[in-house]
């Protein structure tokens, strides 16, 4: 009997194999010939764009389950932090309330969504996941510092509020007082922050900062202080919201090393890395000098701290936690005796910022500024409550107060 379909399984192998090889040959010919037109000038057919976007949303929904929403997701400081970064990086593709999107990105395929109108379709977790991981084949970038999930949550907190924001609210949140800063630093662009990586490492990945990664090439345009001031304020006090660290009370050496460490990637932050990688070495030095020379101001809000918490924190700062071998914070910080090492000042810093840094150290996610970092190990030994207490204590102290006590 002459059947078209063979009835024994083993007889299928030959014809199936031939079919697979034929398909592969056609695929290679199509690929090599270049016959498929990838022009972005031709929009995706309607149905195809929908299928792709549906697939992307299903993948995000599937993977986002692993993230854990922080308890303070709605906090104002998170929204302010997210807004400032959005205004620096994301706005160029996704547009802003009442402003719409840039004409250039409307020609991207796929087209970045106008998030003001589309974020309602995504859950908090899905937003944080997209921010953290980006989306392949779309130009939606992943977060520069993959271990800063906390920063992705701040972005999500802002995106959640975006649909209800009008232009003026968005502008004030994202640009702060940056718009009114006219002060300029007298500094030449000079040499770029030196790239110390091996030639092989340089070849493997283009250096993010040469040429400047500039979404807004502020470093080239002499708009340094308006840029930093958007988040940290012209005086370095961080706009009073706890979203941005107080730089006014920080020492010059630590400010300089922090900017270098963000630029080289040794200290991790998706907010500061895109900023720091655009700076040249003379600009880093001039900015460190500028903020260090501002009057040392304690972060506002110290009067609202819980006195019992502050007192508990004072004990940890002065005595450490002997039962768990945690050294007294003041044996290193606010000291002048270890001149060869760089210790950040903590007095007058926002409690939210200090607490967050301690949590990052405890997860080994913070990265280093100097070549000596005992903080990872030390923070592992602190409980969440102790981190909160000691952070509150340091916000309650006037900058320099403890250093003077020592000197007496
Ligand atoms: C270079 C352009 C570009 C930049 C910069 C960019 N995105 Fe995107 N983004 C895209 C594109 C393109 C998509 C579309 C993905 C798709 O349709 O599958 C996207 C998708 C998204 C989505 C999903 C929207 C939806 O409705 O499905 C979110 C949320 C998002 N981006 C947030 C951000 C945030 C926050 C930033 C800044 C940290 C940012 N993006 C920066 C290009 C960009
Ligand atoms: C979009 C907002 C934003 C902009 C713009 C910005 N910063 Fe920051 N900056 C932050 C945030 C958020 C942090 C905390 C990051 C972290 O968790 O490590 C920070 C941290 C820092 C630190 C470390 C402080 C410490 O106590 O360790 C320095 C120094 C700093 N910024 C300097 C600058 C300078 C100088 C500029 C301008 C060239 C600038 N920043 C622009 C948001 C910003
Ligand atoms: C043995 C010395 C030492 C002790 C003790 C110590 N620190 Fe530190 N701390 C450092 C050094 C060094 C750094 C800078 C690390 C780096 O970034 O590379 C630092 C950094 C920090 C930072 C980051 C500051 C910023 O602006 O980003 C915080 C917050 C901090 N310490 C809090 C504490 C607290 C709270 C205690 C007490 C529980 C403490 N430290 C005890 C040496 C110490």
Automatic annotation (TrEMBL):
SUPFAM superfamilies: Cytochrome c. Keywords: Electron transport, Heme, Iron, Membrane, Metal-binding, Transmembrane, Transmembrane helix, Transport. PROSITE patterns: CYTC. The keyword Heme applies. InterPro entries: Cyt_c-like_dom, Cyt_c-like_dom_sf, Cytochrome_c_Oxidase_Subunit. It holds the Pfam family Cytochrome_CBB3. It comes from the Bacteria. Residues 77-163, 209-295, 308-398 form the Cytochrome c domain. GO terms for molecular function: electron transfer activity; heme binding; metal ion binding. Gene3D superfamilies: Cytochrome c-like domain. The chain crosses the membrane at residues 12-36. This is Cytochrome c553.
